Each structure stands twice: as C-alpha cells, then as structure tokens.
Amino acid sequence: MTAQFGLYVADGNLVSDRDIQHVQYYLRDYGLVLDIHLSPEGAARLSEVTRQNVGKRLAIIIESELVTAPVISGPLKTDRIQLALPQADLPQGSADRIVRAIRGRWP
Fold it and tell me: CA-CA distance, 55 to 74, in Å (whole number)?
C-alpha cells in the first residue's frame, strides 16, 4: 500500500507525496502524532499559500480521508509540520490505517 497524503486549501492540492521527504509517527495515549518533513519546494509552497489564506482551513487528507482541517492562523515558514490527531477525533481504525500507510511509503 502506498500512502497518499495531501494538504489542501480551497480546490488545490498544496502538498503531495512528492513534497514529503520523511514522516515519523508516534502513538501516544491521547492519539497519533505525525512529524512531516517537507522538501524545500513543498515548504515554500506551504508558506506562500498559508500566507495568502490566513483564517481559512487547511485540509489534511491521508488515504482519501479527511483527517483534520485546522484554521490557518498565520504563514507556516518551516519545512516540518507536526500534527497531533486526538484519538477522539479519528474515526475507528483510522490511526492504525494511517500508520500502515506511512510504513508502506516511508519505512
């Protein structure tokens, strides 16, 4: 299984698999934490689009499933994104499916 990741604002795919260099995950008591490292190009695109879309939502989609959609509070000027996904917010079995997808794409 190959993971399919995407970060979306409006109707456009902002960051996709090709922009992600590495993903680490941590299972915690409260849920799943993803530490995503972007390519320089992906980080630049993320910075520009988040600068232009403050106050809008950034959809995080993994394996065709909307995982979270935080409100953009300001430009993200980094090549690393850390997502904390509380277990209570994830549909049943999603954490396991996400971890399997990450292992398949970024072992």
Answer: 8
